[in-house]
Design brief:
The protein is α/β, with parallel strands linked by helices and about 250 residues long. It has a single domain, classed as 3-Layer(aba) Sandwich (Rossmann fold). The protein contains nine helices and five strands; from the N terminus they run ααβαβααβαβαβαα. A five-stranded parallel beta sheet has the order 2-1-3-4-5, with helices on both faces. α6 links the parallel β3 and β4.
Length: about 250
């Protein structure tokens, strides 16, 4: 039974979106998780990038209890979160040509690695250029984006293309353009964004798949445990030491 209060309406909308990605993106999620697992098996490193609020889903899979220890955050100064002052600077930096090239040139990314790029719209210069240049380096790219933006908005990259056009695998979050699930006659703008909920779920579904695929190949997935359970710190110390050459957030 649908709830007519805004809280219930938002949760219903989020649940509907999660059901859609479960049913419609299952093959892509499986392919993305398998790509991550194959990268680990081949000695490659894993990275995640997102700008602005898209960075939240990237950060959610880095150094995370229950997550893969090998997932590293590819950080771009000024666009990781709203801690940059003024916060509007982050939005402006996403549109700067050349920024992704500068970041990649100074990053540890190399051929054989995998990079997950999260961008809701996929239209700004930063994610498009990041995908283009990473693939040119021999990096496999997974894009997490709302494909609807490619048909309902215009690209801000000089090529006129979107993130989805430069990925080995695309996960479509199904988020509507504008990222707001609710409207009310008494409220002048649409509100209640669901992109973080859905994108984070896609990221966790993908990494869960990677862990299972590794196990299917007889490899213990490099998973972290919570530091708040007995033995967690010791477990994590072993995993971090075993894979220290592929983990960059502890240096």
């Amino acid at each position: 039974m649908s709830d007519h209060k805004p809280a219930g309406q938002f949760l219903d909308a989020a649940i509907d979106l999660l059901r859609r990605v479960r049913d419609e993106e299952a093959d892509s999620i499986e392919a993305a998780g398998t790509l991550l697992a194959d990268t680990v098996r081949g000695g490659g490193r894993l990275f995640a990038f997102g700008a602005g609020h898209s960075s939240l889903a990237a950060q959610d899979v880095v150094y995370r209890a229950g997550g893969l220890a090998l997932m590293n955050l590819l950080a771009v100064p000024g666009v990781v979160g709203v801690d940059v002052m003024p916060a509007t600077l982050g939005s402006a930096l996403e549109r700067v040509d050349g920024l992704a090239s500068a970041v990649l040139d100074s990053s540890p990314l190399r051929a054989g690695d995998a990079l997950v790029i999260i961008s809701l719209s996929g239209r700004n210069a930063l994610p498009v250029e990041m995908a283009l240049n990473a693939r040119a380096l021999g990096v496999r790219v997974i894009g997490v984006t709302s494909v609807a933006y490619a048909s309902e908005t215009t690209s801000r990259h000089v090529s006129g293309t979107f993130l989805k056009d430069h990925c080995d695998i695309v996960l479509d979050s199904k988020i509507a353009v504008g990222d707001a699930e609710l409207t009310l006659d008494t409220v002048p703008a649409p509100f209640a964004p669901a992109s973080t909920v859905v994108t984070s779920a896609l990221m966790q579904a993908m990494t869960a798949t990677a862990a299972a695929v590794l196990a299917d190949h007889g490899i213990e997935p490099p998973l972290l445990r919570s530091g708040n359970v007995d033995g967690g710190h010791e477990w994590n110390g072993r995993v971090l030491e075993q894979y220290r050459d592929r983990i960059f957030y502890r240096r």
